[in-house]
Structure formats: C-alpha cells, structure tokens
Design a protein that fits this description.
single chain; alpha+beta; PH-domain like; 5-stranded antiparallel sheet; 4-stranded mixed sheet; 4 helices; 9 strands; about 30% strand
C-alpha cells in the first residue's frame, strides 16, 4: 500500500481504489498545546525541584524530554497515516497510536450528528484522542481490540462530510 503524506485537510488516493482522510487539523492542535505546556512545566517545575535535589531534577527532566519527544513523534505521524477506505476494509487510525482494520461488510452506517453519550460509551473506540469527534461509524458486529469489544468508531476528521459520503457509497455497494 502506497502511503504518501497528505496536505492538511486533504482527501487523498492511496492506491487504485483506496481513499485517505486526514485528521491532523482537528487532532494535532490540542496535542501541540500539550507539548508547549510540557515545555513550560519542564522549565518552571524542574528548576524549583533542582533547589531541593539536583539529581531528582535531572531524572525528571530526562523523563519529561523523552515524553515530549514521544508526543512530537506521535503528532508528526498523523500526516502519513490517514484513515483509509481501501478495497473491502476500513483502516481506522490516529498516526502510530491507534489502528483498527474493519471489513466494510461489518459497517452498519456512518453518522456526523450523534449524542455525546455515544462517544463516552465503553464500546466506542475514540481515535480523536483529546479532540471531540465529528464522525461515528457504527459496526454491525463488535470487533475485539485488545481487551475490549468495539461497536462504534469515533474520530475528528478534517472533512467528515466527504468521508461519510465515500463510506456510505462503499457500504451500499458492498
């Protein structure tokens, strides 16, 4: 499968029949704010801890720097790993953090308007992370992901209307 990074907000073709839908514009800004806040915390709190124990401050600084590096790497992975509708499968993902492949035959429908309770339910896989989703995909039969069953998928896509149209077209013909 050929995966080239998309421009933010773009819908892109990934192969002969695949469609990719980006989410970086909706998900990344909140995470970038977390990176900035982590940097401020790194400077202020660790300086105060240094007066108490330079060794503890050094250890905490190392942990914080690794956490910030991990978060930046995760955010940067969003552009190259879109949500894909490819052949007979839907690949639901958020960069290198979340990935679930679902057969299109198991997709019951897609919604861009839904009650908040649907997002909060335990059987919802919310790939929007800290953003509020703007699309939900309902599954006919729950799928297993790690130790839980997932009955619906939620995400904050950059173009939820185009995604809903493309997915509806694919599941109608499946």
């Amino acid at each position: 499968m050929n995966e080239a990074p998309a421009a933010l907000g773009a819908t892109m073709r990934i192969g002969a029949a695949a469609l990719g839908f980006s989410y970086a514009r909706g998900v990344a800004p909140i995470l970038w704010a977390l990176v900035v806040l982590s940097g401020i915390e790194l400077l202020v709190v660790h300086l105060l801890i240094w007066f108490w124990s330079p060794t503890a401050a050094a250890v905490l600084t190392g942990i914080s720097l690794l956490t910030i590096a991990w978060l930046v790497r995760a955010i940067r992975s969003f552009a190259g790993k879109p949500v894909l509708i490819d052949g007979d499968f839907l690949l639901w993902r958020t960069g290198s953090l979340v990935a679930l492949e679902v057969p299109l035959a198991n997709v019951a429908g897609v919604r861009t308007a839904f009650p908040g309770e649907d997002v909060k339910r335990r059987d919802t896989l919310d790939a929007a992370l800290v953003a509020y989703p703007n699309v939900i995909v309902d599954l006919k039969d729950p799928v297993r992901r790690r130790r839980r069953h997932v009955a619906r998928l939620a995400h904050k896509l950059d173009d939820p209307v185009a995604f809903a149209a493309a997915l509806s077209e694919r599941i109608d013909t499946a």
